[in-house]
Write a structure and sequence with these properties.
five-stranded antiparallel beta sheet; Alpha-Beta Plaits; 428 residues; alpha+beta; Chitinase A, domain 3; 11 strands
Length: 428
């Protein structure tokens, strides 16, 4: 096979492939063997006639079309491997010459990942902060434990700060009056002053008594965790069913022995501090790895085909639409709430999509350079660990799915690579 390769741009290739008669003959014999399995020839058992006999008894147009498809697929695959091309979507193929079974020439146009130029990532340093647990944080955990053990006394007065109110509530779009999934509750216990609801919600309930209701509208924060509700004005209808005064127990050794395996408050405080340090360390490690990848990627150059960015944009939009559907908001309502057109919304996501693609390509290049691999034994061990966490047989069976296995492999590979990069960044 002769390969003629051109790069009209860093992310586009044009390939002209010319096959040899020997290659085509081998492909023809393979196709005849495949098609011959279903051809009946007098005097021979089905699928056992010689290739030259099969060729005379088969539909010639079917033979030719099957042959061409097989030849193009095999030759193109070999060329991609040989030239180390990273094709990102189905190439466009046009046949420029075909002499049945002896000559084949075709042209291929494809989008590919271009050059990835890495910085000297082993020399990139990044300081990792240490966990620092303060007395205030320990006290907050103790207060939370005390709240769980607190006595609730129903009172016939207006609700005040630190009271618990039992409420029914619903939320609907302030403009369309459409009910919002997840913005409702029945017999919901809410401690006023806990700041567990969006700003303004708890404040609106201060001063209400049992059996009193209130309707009020609030705008969700622009940085709210659920994108579907950001900047969205929602009308809440709330009914207070009960007001409870919360009487918390004294936080002492007796309390510690009741809520934990420890005999003293000092021991309980030490255990809380240790747990908070572990939690902080996990958060620090995740943020450190994210910052490190961003730092390495910022110093790398990558020729990224637009098709990959568009694919990532589609994925981001898909996730967002699924989130919206769960919240009971249509895509159009979401765009109107944010005051953007579909084109503007997509354009706004492009930088994020580009960054995600670039980071992935940079990490992939480093993984190849560092020869980071994951063995089947490691994947099997991780699947066993995951199965131990699930009691649902269906969930456990799902882990044996090839797609899930690939996801697990990717995760393990990523963890290995990030651990290695972190070790480089931490070295003096």
């Amino acid at each position: 096979m002769h390969i003629s390769l051109k790069h009209p741009s860093p992310t586009k290739v044009e390939i002209v492939l010319t096959s040899t008669a020997e290659e085509l003959n081998g492909i023809k014999q393979l196709v005849l063997n495949q098609l011959g399995k279903s051809v009946r020839v007098p005097g021979f058992r089905e699928g056992h006639a010689p290739a030259n006999i099969i060729e005379k008894n088969i539909d010639q147009s079917k033979l030719q079309s099957t042959f061409i498809n097989e030849a193009i697929n095999r030759l193109l695959t070999d060329a991609i491997v040989k030239e180390k091309l990273r094709v990102v979507k189905r190439p466009e193929v046009s046949i420029t010459k075909f002499v049945p079974y002896s000559e084949l020439e075709f042209k291929v146009e494809a989008e590919v990942v271009g050059n990835v130029t890495l910085p000297d990532y082993k020399k990139i340093k990044l300081v990792k902060p240490s966990p620092a647990v303060h007395v205030k944080e320990i006290n907050q955990v103790l207060d939370s434990l005390a709240l769980r053990e607190a006595e609730r006394k129903e009172v016939q007065r207006a609700a005040k700060l630190d009271d618990e109110v039992i409420i029914d509530f619903t939320g609907e779009d302030d403009k369309t009056a459409q009910k919002i999934n997840g913005a409702d509750g029945t017999d919901y216990p809410l401690r006023l002053g806990s700041d567990t609801f969006i700003p303004g919600f708890e404040k609106n309930l201060l001063g209400l008594k049992a059996d009193e209701a209130k309707v009020f509208s609030l705008v969700f924060p622009k940085d709210y965790s659920l994108a579907a509700l950001r900047n969205r004005k929602v009308k809440f209808s709330v009914t207070v069913k009960k007001v409870n005064e919360i009487v918390k127990p004294a936080i002492d050794d007796k309390f510690a022995a009741k809520v934990s395996p420890f005999k003293t408050l000092k021991e309980l405080r030490a255990d809380i501090k240790k747990s908070l340090e572990i939690e902080q360390q996990n958060q620090i490690d995740r943020q450190y790895q994210n910052d490190l990848v961003q730092k390495i990627a910022a110093d790398a150059t990558v020729d990224i085909p637009e098709a990959l960015v568009e694919e990532e944009q589609n994925e981001i939009e898909k996730e967002e639409k699924q989130n919206l559907a769960y919240r009971g908001q249509t895509w159009q309502e979401h765009l109107e709430a944010e005051g953007v057109t579909e084109e503007e919304h997509r354009k706004r996501n492009r930088d994020n999509a580009y960054s995600r693609v670039k980071n992935a390509l940079v990490l992939g290049e480093i993984a190849d350079k560092e020869a980071v691999t994951v063995s089947d034994a490691e994947i099997d061990a991780q699947i066993v660990n995951l199965k131990a966490r699930y009691s649902d047989p269906q969930m456990r069976d799902e882990l044996d799915n090839p797609e899930r296995r690939q996801e697990i492999k990717n995760r393990l590979l990523s963890d290995k690579l990030l651990t290695r990069l972190s070790s480089f960044a931490a070295k003096e």
